[in-house]
């Protein structure tokens, strides 16, 4: 990614806030001018007002300075408040843009990237960008105005002395440029390590119950310490480079001050400048050193912000889920699903396909169950129907429409999904059920809960439907979470229903409640059921046995039992165990 391109994109985020930004820059300019006034007034006091007994001018000059300082204090308040506000608003714009973009990215991106790393980019990186957005232009502009202004004023005092002093500044600039590459590499590495350690922390906190149950706290601590040591190593490398940079930069600034005292002293000794001009020269160089030091100090911030913005752009440049140019909206689908010679594989080094040349038809309004050993691609088939992933070959149609010709939002509005691993958002029970239809009334939400056999439990709670479920629904049992997700599907009222292991790992009583709810939910809809517990799919209109070789058997329960193949073997094995 070219730096010019990155810079243009960064500047583009200032446009909605250009009025505040302009005010910020004007304040910075006025402060810079005021900083140049003090040495000049000092020169006049030493050379004219005091030697010539000009008391009035002395009082006017000093009180003018006092007035400037008061105005400068007000301007500094504007810089600190409004200037930071520009950065915060830009940060909010970027965060909003990034969040919306993440909502459109292919599922593969979330398969390949840790949640903690993504969170780091949305928080740490954008904060650094916000700080750069405020301090970068303001500090650089203020410093440059001061440096240029000081050079002009010093040239009027003695151009030769000014040239001698400013001859050292290019060496400082060259040194900064040489350090740029090393600093960039160190800061980029630090960002990666920061994201990884955030991911480890997020994982450890989310899985704290599992680690405690398996007495794995020591293992988690060991894993965290490894990441923590990597953090220290990367941070140490970053600070080593920074130490080299700042120590050298400080030496250059001290050397500049040394040159002023030596050269200025010699010019004064030989009568090329007077006492007031010498004092002004020393004060201007003091004023000059401050912005040079600011430029050196802000370099870390520029590196942090530039690295953060580059990482932000890396995500924004990932192609979102694409729609075909002629993609159509569909209203209510009947739900006939056809897999026609479909091939699909998750991207991996071995390039292995999960399903190859797979064909299957699910008639509209029928219930079809997918059973078979693990690894046959049953869950993958469920993920392909809502187009969570793009197939590698063949076609999938619904009511004769190729899925690629239907807009995703339109397609997914017709599909309800109930999975084994239920995800509930941190919020109330009502909010989680309302995901099925955000426009639903309280009565419709309660009706959906009744159909899912969860209403009586909800109203028994002190806060009823306003009960907070906790992160990932941790305050509810597995069966309760499952019934909330079923209520969500009832509220959505889809024409196509996908049940992926929806009754696994539940006790018999809870399974009966959930199976009853699922039977009501499946009524009149095209339903695809994935189940390992074969007793739950005996009444399906058709049962399809799927293995790594594709469809091995298909038929009703009785037909497959009489066939005496894989299904019968699996069923009798489970029945014997039960």
Notable characteristics:
elongated; 578 residues; six-stranded mixed sheet; 18 helices; 10 strands; alpha/beta; four-stranded antiparallel sheet
Q: Main beta sheet, described?
A: 6 strands, mixed
In the sheet with the most strands, the strands line up as 6-7-8-3-9-10
Count, helices: 18
- Strand tally, please? 10
What is the overall pLDDT average?
A: 81
Overall shape: elongated
Cα end-to-end separation: 61 Å
The proportion of strand residues reads 5-15%
Structural class: alpha/beta
Q: Summarize the helix and strand pattern as letters.
A: HHHHHHHHHEEEHEEHEHHHHEHEEEHH
Radius of gyration (CA) equals 35 Å
Binned, the helix content reads 55-70%
Identify low-pLDDT runs: none
Give an overview of the whole structure.
- With 578 residues, the chain is α/β, with parallel strands linked by helices.
- 64% of the residues lie in helices and 10% in strands.
- The longest helix has 53 residues.
Can I get a quick summary?
About 65% of the residues lie in helices and about 10% in strands.
Write the layout of secondary structure elements.
Blueprint: H1 3-12, H2 18-49, H3 55-102, H4 107-112, H5 115-166, H6 169-206, H7 208-213, H8 217-269, H9 275-316, E1 337-344, E2 355-362, E3 367-371, H10 378-384, E4 393-398, E5 401-402, H11 408-412, E6 415-419, H12 429-433, H13 442-451, H14 455-460, H15 478-492, E7 496-500, H16 508-522, E8 526-530, E9 542-547, E10 550-555, H17 557-563, H18 566-577
Parallel strand pairs: 3-8, 3-9, 6-7, 7-8
Antiparallel strand pairs: 1-2, 1-4, 4-5, 9-10
